[in-house]
Structures are given as C-alpha cells and as structure tokens.
Amino acid sequence: MSAPKTLYDKIWDAHVVDTQPDGTCLLYIDRHLVHEVTSPQAFEGLRMSGRKVRAPEKTIAVPDHNVPTTAGRETHIDNEESRIQVEALDKNAKDFGINYYPVTDIRQGIVHIVGPEQGWTLPGMTVVCGDSHTATHGAFGALAHGIGTSEVEHVLATQTLIQKKSKNMKVEITGKLRPGVTAKDITLSIIGQTGTAGGTGYVIEYCGEAIRDLSMEGRMTVCNMAIEGGARAGLIAPDEKTFEYVKGRPHAPKGAAWEAALAWWKTLYTDEGAHFDKVVTIRGEDIAPVVTWGTSPEDVLPITATVPAAEDFTGGKVDAARRSLDYMGLKPGMKLTDIKIDAVFIGSCTNGRIEDLRAAAEILKGKHLAPGVRGMVVPGSGLVRLQAEEEGLDKIFKDAGFEWRLAGCSMCLGMNPDQLAPGERCAATSNRNFEGRMGRGGRTHLMSPVMAAAAAITGHLTDVRDIMAETV
Amino acid sequence: MEKFEKLTGIAAPMPLVNIDTDMIIPKQFLKTIKRTGLGVNLFDEMRYNPDGSENPDFVLNQPAYRQTEILVAGDNFGCGSSREHAPWAMKDFGIKAVISTSFADIFFNNCFQNGILPIVLPAEAVAVLMEDAKKGSNARMTVDLEAQTVTSSDGQSFHFEVDAFKKHCLLNGLDDIGLTLQKVPAIDSYEAQMAQARPWV
Ligand code: SF4
To answer: CA angle, corner B82, sides to B78 and B86, nearest 5?
Structure first.
C-alpha cells in the first residue's frame, strides 16, 4: 500500500508532467483565468515570439479590475488607460480564441466569482490566474494559486507551470461558530493568529467541523484570504455540498462524464495518517466577530477590543504598528467600536457573492445608513446582481441609502473610479487594508458583510451581535 | 533574460516589515500595457508627497542611495498582490537583488523571472547587513550568485541558499518558456493520457 497522502499531494501528483532530478516539476494547468491588468504583457510576449495559446478552451478571460461599476460602461470608459487595458483584453481574447465574458455580457464579473459560477472551477483541478486571490478556487478542492505575468505567458504558451512542491499545512477549525460569526471572521482570525507570513512555503488545507458547516460561498471566503496568510494556496476537500454546487453549471460535466468525474472527486481527501508539516487548530467557539485596525491583514482584533499600542508588539512590527496607527489616524487604547466611518463597501471576490449580499441585507432590512456615511454594494458578477434583484435585495440596499452598482472589483482596489478620498475611513468586506489600496490616503477596516452592515447603520465600527439583539 | 553573476553595489536599508506590492508599485501604475518605464514610480506613495515633490526622508531619495542596486528589507517583503509590475519597477530603477528574512511566494518567483535575485538570510545576518546598508554610498555590498554569498562593505560574508534550478537559469539568463517548450512531447503525452482518464477537464 502506498503512503497516506494529503489532498494537496493527490492533486499535485495527478498533474505532474515531468520531474527534474532536483525536484523541480512541470505541472499541468487545467484552467487558466485571465483578467485585463496582468495579461497584456503576456499576450504581447506571445505575439513577439510568434506563439499561440496552447489550450484556448481551458483559458477564460474577463475584465474586472478596471471597469467602472456604473451604467454606460458598455460603451465608454472615461479613463483612457483603463479603456486601453480593457480593449487590449477584448482583442487578445478574440485573436487567441479564448473563452471571454466582455463587459457587455451579463455573466461578466470578478474573475474569481465567474470561474466557479460558470462551472469552470471543478474539484481536483489545477487553476491559475495572474492574481493572488486565485486561492479562492481552493474551496472546491482545486489547487489554485496566483502567478506573475511571466508565468501567465508561460501557461498560455505551454499549459504548464514550472513548480516546486510546497509543504503541507493543516488549519483545523473545530466545533461550531457562535451567532454573528462568519467565514470572514474565521479567515481573518487565522491570519491574526499565524501572521501574514505564517503560511509562506505552505499549501493550507482547511478542515474541521466549522469549515464543513460552511456553504460553498463561505468556503470561498476562507480560501480567498489564504494568500493574506502567506500560503501558496488554500484547499478544502470536496464533499456533497461541493458536488451539489457544481452540478448543472454551464461548464460542469454532464451525464456519464459527471459520473466519472464524481467517482474521482470522491477520492479527493486527505488519507488517515497523512503527514502535515505544520498544524494550527482553532476552536470555532473562540472566534468572535473581528475587524482590522491597521494596514496589514494580520492586524486583527475582536470588535470588543481596543486599539493596541506600537509597544505591544516586538521586533520589526513595532515600527510597522506605529506607522499603521499613524496612517489609520488611531490612538492606542480607544475602543474599536468608537471608530467612526465615512464609507461602507460591500463586495469583492472575498464577499461579493449572493450569500454575502443576503446576510448584509438581513441586517439592513428596514434600517438606514447613518447620516454622512456613504455606502456601496457591488455584486461580484452580473448573475449575482440579477439573483439579488430577483430576491429584492437591491431594494433593501437602496432603501437603506446604498448605491447598487454593476459588477467588478470596484473599491477593493481603486483602479477604477470607485475610490476613497484621502483620510476617508471605510468599513470594507474586501481582503486588503494596505496603505492606499482603496485610494491614496484611504483607511480600510476589513470585516464581514454583516459587520459592515452593522457599521453602516451606526456610523462607527459595531458589534453586529448588538444589532442582532435589537432585532429579535 | 540578462544573466546575473556577480554584483557589487550600493545597498539601501528598508527595515519596515511586510512591505507589500501595493507599496512597491501602487495600483494606478498597473494600467500600463508595457513592462518598462515603471522605475520612476517605484515606492511611489512613500517616495513622493501628494503634490508630486520628492519626500526627502525616503531612503531612495537621499543622495547616497540614488544609485541603489540592492535592498536590505524587513521580514515578509513583497506580500500582497501578484503584480509583476513590482519587480518590473525595481528592475527599471536598477535594483538587482533584495535581501530579507523572508519573501512572499509569488513575488519571490516573479523576481527570478526578471533577473532579480531575492536572497533569504537569517535575522542575525540581515541585521548586520541592515547596519552596513545604513552607512550610505560608502557601503558597497557584493552579491556573488555562483558562490552564494553576500559580503558586507567591511568584508563579513554570509552564505545563502538558492534553488539549484533557479540559480542555473539566472546565471545563464535562461528563459523558462524556452526551456519548457523543449518538453512539448511530455506535455503532449500527458494530455493524451488525461483525455482518457479525466475527459471532463
Ligand atoms: S475583488 Fe479585489 S482582491 Fe478580488 S480580484 Fe478584484 S481587486 Fe483583486
């Protein structure tokens, strides 16, 4: 009998094309997702060397980072550089014959939302994209990670990637989550505990009862931020929920192919006794609704805490914390719930799926944005938007004073017109609170959709459990 | 790709931890469809004031560090976005090597794709080199890839590890795509096998 393998080992082994004596492998790539920002130079490289896309049928492109989220974008994008990038993708998709969802297509959206939604992402696959949040697709038990533009060109030309295997790390979340605690709180709490470099060199498998209990949307939220923990990828073993989600999607296998696929997918789990190089265990009951206070995703605290002082840290983090506090305009010792906000952003590849919008709407129903706070809801794809409208969620958001936008990355990174002004403070459901990420000088507090909705109502960071207590 | 062999140059100290790729090259410069010309925007928001003038406190704006070729940085350098614009901007500025205790994975790979050598050393060694870099333009460090050593201006030498394959590619200026295309027969046969085993892919 062969040695027990982890889920990562199994997917890796199934994709090795060639191994060099030093262990460097050529790994086959099943799905290559492409967006407009990290691909123009790669296509240019192909053209210059007269190369084709090796497997255009396995390559899927969609513009998301640059596109405005307001009406009229189908015909005109004001910012010239953005327009050129989107037009370049239009042309590259056509010239190289790859699958494409242009901005005029209802299926357009954030690449990491479109892939799973259309059934391109399937269990056991290798999925890459010139985007660090490719980790999202790990929720399906697919080995998915971000790559640079040179590697994008490499995959386009060869459908493979030169890789060395990472180490195995297990993150187990045991037991049940408490009310008001979501997938976002799980993933932020993990990073808060392990740090932004805690996963460097590893592929993480998330497991445990609290992970099993999550919906596919929640699992995608968890895996999405594996990269913020430094990991190459995050994985969750596929189960009935996964198969149920995938079944019937446009590019999922059908009929006999479905049965064959299912038989293989059911073998995709970590064998009893398989070795992990690092193990982290967190009790689900110990996870609180959290927010970030600083400019690194590891700057995580329960909402009931106070702003730390730089001296609370050690080593290089002391200076980094001082810089963060200064940038964020926060004083040590103040209660997190006393931090006033100017804006609320609900969206992104972390929390722009239907379930996220439902959860936020549930809190906002019959409520209104606090005076002086602006709010924006940006569905992750045109189909999420459509579904939300069918369920009447758009009405709840609009009644609450939110803007209801078209799909895209939007404020998650201000490459498009949606940005924070200098000094503006935002409760955001996205994944990065870096300096300037949402606009130069903008201040970002990361949190779950329900926590963002709670902050929207009160105008300051708020414990969603207090709002929930009011409504019952 | 250019070959990387041996480099002696000015090293700049950047002790901040978790320097992310948004800091290295902010998003507004990702709208380019070229790989070149990003050097002026390297570390843009730290390097320039909101009115566009230079921030004299930023290390690369100081006279001693304008010709920097090596960065000595805090832990977890290059975390965040996968943007290869970060190493493109560094290369365009003239930076050829970065020394830290750790690097984010995607950034680390992206460096090698662009002839930049990321060097991982233990905290004690980085601390010594950080102090050395603080001496300004008189402190010229030497990075020898063949020997896998970094030598400070006063002659203290540290050995570093580097993946053998990556070293080989960098020393010889080899292009990954060219190498992989020599393996097309293996890719063909893998695809043929998979067409049987996992036809739904
Ligand atoms: S939503 Fe944000 S994190 Fe996700 S792909 Fe877009 S820019 Fe990146």
So the answer is: 55
- Spell out where chain B has E strands: 6-14, 70-73, 97-100, 117-120, 140-144, 149-151, 157-159
Q: Which residue among B28, B30, B79 sits closest to A196, beta carbon to beta carbon?
A: B79
pLDDT in tens, A68-81: 999 999 888 999 99
C-alpha distances in Å from residue A357, one per residue of A37, A334, A373, A397, B50: 27, 30, 19, 9, 36
**Cβ-contact A210, A174 below 8 angstroms:** yes
pLDDT in tens, A150-201: 999 999 999 999 999 999 999 999 999 999 999 999 999 999 999 999 999 9
Task: Produce one character per residue of B109-136: b if its CB has 16 or more CB atoms within 10 Å, e if not.
Answer: bbbbbbbbbbbbbeeebbebbbebbebe
Say if the Cβ atoms of B199 and A147 lie within 8 Å. Answer: no
Do the beta carbons of residue B146 and residue B160 sit within 8 Å?
no
Closest CA to A252 of A150, A82, A118: A118
What is the atom index within ligand 1 of the atom nearest the CA of A350?
4
B123-137: pLDDT as tens digits: 999 999 999 999 998
Reference A126, options A28, A208, A20, A39; nearest CA is A28
Given a cut of 80, is residue A471 above it in pLDDT?
Answer: no
Element (H, E) at A282: strand A278-283
Residue A83, number of CB atoms within 10 A of its CB: 16
| pLDDT of amino acid B2 | 80
Q: Does A41 touch chain B if contact means CB atoms closer than 8 Å?
A: yes
Model pTM above 0.90: yes
- Using alpha carbons, select from A201, A44, A60 the residue that is nearest to residue A127: A60
Are the beta carbons of A26 and B186 separated by less than 8 Å?
A: yes
Distance CA A313, CA B148 (A): 34
Q: Using a CB–CB cutoff of 8 Å, tell me whether B33 touches chain A.
A: yes
Alpha-carbon A398 to chain mean position:
25
B195 touches chain A (CB under 8 A): no
Contacts of A157 (CB under 8 A, 6+ apart): A46, A51, A52, A53, A54, B177, B180, B181
Residue whose CA is closest, atom 4 of ligand 1?
A: A349
B30 touches chain A (CB under 8 A): yes
B4 CA: distance to closest CA in chain A (Å): 18
Q: State the best of B51, B57, B169, B180 to mutate against chain A, taking most chain A CBs within 10 Å.
A: B180
> What type of residue sits at position A201?
G
Q: How confident is residue A472, by pLDDT bands cut at 50, 70 and 90?
A: low
Helix A80-96 vs helix A40-49: angle between axes, to the nearest 10 degrees? 50
CB A381 within 8 A of CB A109: yes
Contacts 24+ apart (CB under 8 A), A318-323: A319/B15, A319/B16, A319/B17, A320/A296, A320/B16, A320/B17, A320/B18, A320/B74, A321/A294, A323/A295, A323/B16
Q: What's the token pair of residue A190?
A: 């993990």
| d(CA B26, ligand 1 centre) in Å | 14
Query: How much distance in Å is there from the Cα of A223 to the middle of ligand 1?
Result: 14
Evaluate whether A228 touches A349 at the Cβ level (below 8 Å). no
CA distance B173 to chain A (A): 14
Residue A348 beta carbon below 6 angstroms from any ligand 1 atom: yes
What integer best gives the mean pLDDT of chain B? 95
* Residues in CB range of A413: below 8 A, 6 or more apart: A65, A432, A437, A438, B22, B27, B81
Q: What number is the average pLDDT over the span A351-373?
A: 98
